[in-house]
Amino acid sequence: MAIQWFPGHMHLTRKAIAERIAEIDVVIELLDARLPGSSANPMLAELTGHKPGVKVLNKQDLADPERTALWLAHYNAQPATRAIGLDASQAAPARQLIEACRQLAPQRGSMAKPMRVLICGIPNVGKSTLINTLVGTRKAKTGDEAGVTKLEQRIVLADGFYLWDTPGMLWPRIIVAQSGYNLAASGAVGRNAFDEELVALELLGYLKQHYAALLEARFRLDAVAGLGDEEVLEAIGRQRGALLGKGRVNLQKAAEIVMNEFRSGSLGRITLETPEEFEQWLAAGQLL
Ligand code: G4P
Description:
By secondary structure, the chain is an alpha/beta fold.
């Protein structure tokens, strides 16, 4: 599917990382727990010179817990990597992040040798929410009125613990076809950059196969497995009164309903890819 990425974005991300990386101890990559493989920057390891990394599966409250466990195991098996699941708005779990960084760089974290962390992630993955939560934690802990010290984008999270933010950007290359659909479904891509009906159909195709019961319950449908993707979209449109004249279904409106309900979690806790599936998509080499 054609998604209008903007190639300039990758250059900004690359520049922001290149400017800082020499003095960074740990790289945090924020991933969307509903699409960890697709929301990961495929060039990050190379861009960061293979520095130790924390993979944060954010929005885990919206993701399928069984699949989150698979992804955490997958990342934790990688060298110099720690993976944690988070809901960025919750303060206590966010503190796990600081602990994971300390484990990866135990020699850092003092006033003399501060921990220097870089945080990256695609748009809408929850980076601002997480930073606000972490800053709030410090505020509560220290009573520091300023709460956040910003100097050249440096945020002081705790004594001897500094965080640098990078622009929340998507990368234009090395994205498998299915990743384009999953990123669009998640809300990481501006809505003018893709065809909503196509994305909703792809999403329904996957949900029919893996989360049929959730789909049937939410939209009061019967036996979706026996229906084509377009039939499911039409049935949802009818069920929700998204109609044009003469009883025709407004498929565009129905597509918006499907995507909004997936994004908000109203459909249930759903993950659009497993580590195994993602490997297969990569191997199939369906590059955009
Ligand atoms: P960004 O800086 O990476 O672009 O993302 P941001 O923090 O702005 O978060 C994007 C949206 O995702 C926000 O919702 C935010 O509340 C939501 N979000 C972030 N982390 C989590 C999480 O762990 N779980 C859930 N369920 N949602 C999360 P929004 O609808 O755009 O704004 P609002 O509802 O907060 O006003």
